[in-house]
Amino acid sequence: MSELILALDQGTTSSRAILFDGHAQPVEVSQKEFGQIFPKPGWVEHDAEEIWQTQRDVALKALRNDKAVAIGITNQRETTVLWDRKTGKPIHHAIVWQDRRTSARCDQLRAQRKDRLIQSRTGLILDAYFSATKLEWLLDHVPGARKRAEKGELAFGTIDCWLLYKLTEGRVHATDASNASRTMLYNIHKGCWDAELLKLFRIPSSVLPEVKDSSGYFGQASALPGNIPIYGMAGDQQAALFGQGCNKPGMAKNTYGTGCFMLMNTGREAGKSRNKLLTTVAWQLDGQRHYALEGAIFIAGAVVQWLRDGLGIISHANEVEELARSVPDTGGVHLVPAFTGLGAPWWDQHARGTITGLTRGTTKAHLARAALESIALQTVDVLSAMQIDSGLKLRELWVDGGATANELLMQTQADLAGVVVVRPQVAETTALGAAKLAAMAAGVWKSVFKASKAEGSRFSPAMKPAARRARLESWHVAVDQTMTPSKNHLREMEARRR
Questions:
Q1: What is the fold, at CATH topology level, of the domain defined by 5-236?
Q2: Sequence-ordered list of residues with C-beta below 8 angstroms from that of 407, at least 6 positions apart, any chain
Q3: pLDDT tens digits, one per residue of 260-272
Q4: This prediction's pTM
Q5: Residue 167: CB atoms within 10 Å
Q6: Which of 123, 179, 189, 450 is buried most deeply by CB count within 10 Å?
Q7: Cβ(46)–Cβ(258) under 8 Å?
């Protein structure tokens, strides 16, 4: 019991706290949802104070009978908070990674040919997804924000940084290299905030946090009982990669959450993608950066939430599998959930969701099955791009995240990808990654790091290759219809495949 570690897993729709024992097994889990704010079409915001309160509440609940030796933090990435250093209060709602309000600004920068500069320094595709244009927007649109920032009165951070600030009661303003690499302001090759990019986005350096190792001492959580040391921090997808044990080049995982994110470890090499994948910092240990290729899908589990909250065809998310199983296939329907644009490998920020193949015979069950298929099909596109970029043929895809409990989705994923899908024993790999990073710095869990990866369930492909090809071809027709006319990423990638 002396090796208990508390992982704070702050996601897009809920805050979670998981207490892991010395065998890296969850012993306490607490979760609390918080509100989603949609001020205008394409805009998504969160109340950062509500995020902090929900995260604190679940942490207290998880710790009610125990004391942890360390805390690890993992978080939704890119979501941007700007707050008053003196009061600790946000000056505006947090702008969420899904938010598209700065798409026009990105178009302007692209017209100025700044996209190549940005990608060469940050490894990222110029897009409203990342933090830089969100922070710039806040400084330009919140009255007095820019002047206050220039005076050093304001602090910027992604959600990890915000939670750290609140946990330490304002004593520490810091982030880790994995989260910094998602801001579009951080030079992933030099390991520092990039002065030229700060000038481009007109960001005063005084608002920026200190960048630290992903495993190391961050401060004391004086806002929680026990004054527990905080020893680990990583963005949610990098934490999942670490939690899955993908610590060698060529190892990959896919996380199914609000969005869907596939990462492949590339070691100390910051490889450049030819297929519009991202190059990102996986983690930083002892000052040494390790990198990954990433394919980011904006809408995955969120499409099931849309079936529930937007269409009302299910009452609870876990009903979708039974409804989808009530029909043998989608009846020719494709749902392309580009509600906030298309991510990898297409990167069309102006695309919006479409449903194709509707007939009078289409039912809500067909839509439910098409929704699940859309998650798997988007993943296949990223997997194909990743294999082309890396030159590696993946035989297994390790998966994690809440949606992996859906057996139909996992089998569909194996069928459409044509690879074995492996679900680990511990599904909470994002939180586990944060806990393992904290354990490393705390000097505990040595037996855990020596153990091999523990698989739980395997899903083998059962679809015939011809049927798989036909479904992928019809999916790509639907994607092509979804994209804005100026985009030809699909045709480019298909040409490379041929």
A1: Nucleotidyltransferase; domain 5 (3.30.420)
A2: 321
A3: 889 988 889 887 7
A4: 0.83
A5: 26
A6: 179
A7: no
